[in-house]
Amino acid sequence: METCVLCLLFLGLCFPLLHGKSVKQFRTWGTTDGSEEWGYVEVRPKAHMFWWLYRSPNRVESGPTPWPTVLWLQGGPGASAVGIGNFQEIGPLDTDLKPRNSTWLQKADLLFVDNPVGAGYSFVEDEAALATTDEHCGIDLTTLLKMLFNGNAGLQKSPLFVVAESYGGKFAVTVGLSIAKAIKAGELNLTLGGIALGDSWISPEDFVLTWGTLLRDVSRLDINGEKKSNSLAQLIKKQLGEGEYTNATSTWAVLEEVIASQSNNVDFYNFLLDNGMDPLGSMAIPSTLSSGKMTMKGYSSYLSSKYTSKVSLDDLMNGVIKQKLKIIPKDMSWGEQYDMVFNAMSGDFMKPRIKEVDELLSMGVNVTIYNGQVDLICATKGTEAWVQKLKWEGLADFNNAIREPLYCGNYEGTKAFAKSYKNLHFYWILEAGHFVPVDQPCVALQMPMLFNSGDPGSTVQSYKTSGPFSLLHSRAPTTCKTLHQINT
Ligand SMILES: *[C@@H]1O[C@H](CO)[C@@H](O)[C@H](O)[C@H]1NC(C)=O
Ligand SMILES: *[C@@H]1O[C@H](CO)[C@@H](O)[C@H](O)[C@H]1NC(C)=O
Ligand SMILES: *[C@@H]1O[C@H](CO)[C@@H](O)[C@H](O)[C@H]1NC(C)=O
Ligand SMILES: *[C@@H]1O[C@H](CO)[C@@H](O)[C@H](O)[C@H]1NC(C)=O
């Protein structure tokens, strides 16, 4: 508990609250060869959102389908896509700044956004400017997309696929609806390619209700642990039914603590593992402090455990990357997961977003769901449960559709299963936990519905960099008028 409090204080020190700064409305910067661009957009007064776009060297203009752009959304809420998703999961470079051979840049241009404002390099000048609902975050993201896409014919050529992980799934569906609305109103010029929900927290109730029994089935809890877990899950269900959303968030935190103690610290991101042995890793789950505030720790300790890097993500993002980007305010620190962002969202954290998935499906938007087999926090069993609650008219046919096995690379065994009906696509990814692109990079890149690539049979090629990564390879800031027509 003591370590926990220390961490909270430490994070408190680096929370991106920048008072009284004269921050321009938005600024962009990039590499001289145009392969990377990044910048800030002031999505609301005092709320500054950071984005980073990578253009793929593999881009083909005349393929069977238009070259896609993937907008990657991280979870938390409060975790940084620009740091975690980019350097630990799918970006062109890993945390040692070495090329990642499974980068999604092979198949798409990549747009990482630190969302909600306050996460990663994004910041607010006033705590009151933090977003408090999923819908609010969807609107902020749409404001950012208007700034980037409107008047930019190059970007408009690529359909946008919103791909989310974990809590990011709730943002993906709210931003999906908000994008569709803005397109219809003639306020946003882009093509929405689809929405992908990777191990996404769409229906918290359905996840917490599976935990006890699932963990007992795989020997991680005994009957007593299962009972305790299920009774707290029932309490959450009751609280949600009564609209006591913030209380449900507190009960969720208690439930995770109970499961941790009853299971000798199972890893919530892969139930076959123990949570990390280091003090930070052991706090990958929320803790309720005596203050009643919650703290989310070590979101990416599971990911860090996959690398032998000597540099922590924190040092990387506050060191060479911050220097490269040039436009990050000097007095702010990048943080992997900001508790204040999480706490601002605590009234929405447990709310389901099944209705939003239904709306997207009935609008004809492609919705892809993929889930790692050994994820606990967003267990496949829970994902299947909320899918069965959809009111979408295609559900019965989806259930009856034939499930196909998927293979990948030189490995002869089954890697995944896939089922599709009309615009709903579901991938069951074997031997993967919460972080599918990291645990099963080969098959992640072969989910054709994710990229609409029309090339389901391709195998993973090693990513070729055009040259050594240059940290100082920057050109002067451009005025945004020339790059992006401002539309408010
Ligand atoms: C969208 O693009 C069309 C055609 O390129 C153009 O006429 C229209 O003004 C654009 N709208 C916005 C909001 O940029
Ligand atoms: C919800 O939490 C508040 C504040 O802690 C408490 O006063 C209230 O009794 C709780 N409601 C329920 C139904 O548990
Ligand atoms: C959905 O995905 C399929 C398969 O890639 C594609 O043929 C179809 O055009 C997509 N639909 C929409 C509305 O984008
Ligand atoms: C990518 O790297 C991993 C780990 O370094 C290696 O096992 C794999 O064979 C590589 N794949 C390709 C296609 O180079």
**What's the count of strands?**
17
Straight-line distance between termini: 47 Å
Structural class determined from secondary elements: alpha/beta
Radius of gyration: 21 Å
The profile of the biggest β sheet is:
13 strands, mixed
How many distinct helices? 19
Contiguous low-pLDDT stretches (5 residues minimum) are 1-23, 277-285, 287-298, 454-488
CATH H-level superfamily title of the largest domain: Alpha/Beta hydrolase fold, catalytic domain
Q: What is the domain total for the residues?
A: 2
Mean pLDDT: 83
Q: Fill in the CATH topology of the largest domain.
A: Rossmann fold
β-strand amount:
15-25%
CATH uppermost class of the largest domain: Alpha Beta
Plain-language structure description:
Its EC number is 3.4.16.-. It holds the Pfam family Peptidase_S10. One of its GO terms (molecular function) is serine-type carboxypeptidase activity. One of its GO terms (biological process) is proteolysis. Keywords: Carboxypeptidase, Hydrolase, Protease, Signal. The strands form three sheets. Strands 1, 2, 3, 4, 5, 6, 7, 8, 13, 14, 15, 16 and 17 form a 13-stranded mixed beta sheet that branches. This protein has a two-stranded antiparallel ribbon with strand order 9-10. The longest helix has 19 residues, at 223-241. The model is unreliable at 1-23, 277-285, 287-298 and 454-488 (pLDDT under 50). It is an alpha/beta fold. It has helices spanning 2-13, 81-90, 134-149, 153-156, 168-184, 204-217, 223-241, 245-262, 301-304, 313-318, 320-325, 339-344, 354-362, 380-387, 395-400, 436-439, 441-444, 448-451, 480-483, and strands spanning 26-31, 36-44, 47-54, 69-73, 109-114, 123-124, 160-166, 192-200, 266-267, 270-274, 287-288, 294-295, 367-372, 404-408, 411-421, 424-429, 474-478. It folds into two domains: 28-202 and 314-483, Rossmann fold (3-Layer(aba) Sandwich), CATH 3.40.50.1820; 205-275, no CATH class. It is built from 19 helices and 17 strands. It is globular and about 60 Å long. The protein binds 2-acetamido-2-deoxy-beta-D-glucopyranose (NAG) (4 copies).
